[in-house]
Amino acid sequence: MSVIYMLIPIAILFVIIGLAVFFWAVRSKQFEDLDKEGFSILFEDDTATPTDKKPRHQKNDY
Questions:
Q1: Distance between CA atoms of residues 45 and 50, nearest Å
Q2: CA pair distance 49, 46, nearest whole angstrom
Q3: DSSP string computed for 12-41
Q4: Which pTM value belongs to this model?
Q5: Residue range 26-47, pLDDT digits in tens
Q6: Under 8 Å between Cβ of 56 and 62
Q7: What per-residue string of b and e applies to 26-56 under the rule 16 or more CB within 10 Å gives b?
Q8: How many CA atoms lie less than 13 Å away from 29 in the CB half-sphere?
Q9: Is 13 exposed, middle or buried (0-12, 13-18, 19+ CB in 10 A)?
Q10: pLDDT of residue 58
């Protein structure tokens, strides 16, 4: 029964931390445009430049 006296304040602390992180995310506009990232994978990025370098082959240590 004495362990409950320790677990309840820890649970309350976790709830307070979770609420603080949630309100920080809302205030810093993390949830402003939820569709942007979903649509960004559908279209190619024209600003990316192709590289002429060939990838290095790693040595296989068998």
A1: 11
A2: 8
A3: HHHHHHHHHHHHHHHHTTTTS-SSHHHHHT
A4: 0.53
A5: 999 888 877 777 777 777 766 6
A6: no
A7: eeeeeeeeeeeeeeeeeeeeeeeeeeeeeee
A8: 2
A9: exposed
A10: 65
CA 22 to chain centre: 13
Q: Tokens 């677990």 appear where?
A: 7
Residue positions counted in the chain: 62
What token pair was written down for 29?
């506009």
Query: Two tokens at 32?
Result: 């402003």
Tell me if 20 sits within 8 A of 27, measured CB to CB. no
